[in-house]
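Researcher: Quick test of sequence recovery. Tokens follow.
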């Protein structure tokens, strides 16, 4: 014979479900925060590499070009700039590369907001 659950048992069961859901949500939020922190650290690292490449290839004066890179938040675009700068033969070529990626990022941002 099956006994029916008491009110207290039902409340405990509901609390256990709520607690589990809360833990799951907390883990999900923590994971998302961790991923965002990792992406931000990646962006900072690539920006630092870009700065190092500019300085080593074209001198301290070329660091002024870094202003083109600062507003770019897309990690893949930053990586493409870094890669392109390794092959750039002049400050003008480096600047054109950065402007092209900055423009592409702006256009993509506008398209995604529409």
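Model:
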């Amino acid at each position: 014979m099956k006994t029916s659950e008491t009110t207290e048992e039902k409340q405990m069961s509901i609390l256990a479900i709520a607690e589990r859901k809360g833990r799951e949500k907390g883990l999900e939020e923590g994971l998302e925060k961790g991923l965002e922190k990792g992406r931000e650290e990646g962006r900072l690292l690539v920006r630092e590499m870009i700065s190092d490449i500019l300085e080593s290839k074209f001198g301290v004066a070329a660091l002024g070009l870094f202003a083109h890179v600062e507003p770019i938040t897309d990690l893949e675009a930053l990586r493409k700039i870094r890669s392109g700068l390794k092959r750039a033969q002049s400050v003008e070529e480096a600047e054109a590369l950065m402007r092209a990626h900055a423009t592409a990022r702006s256009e993509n941002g506008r398209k995604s907001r529409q």
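The chain has three helices and no strands.
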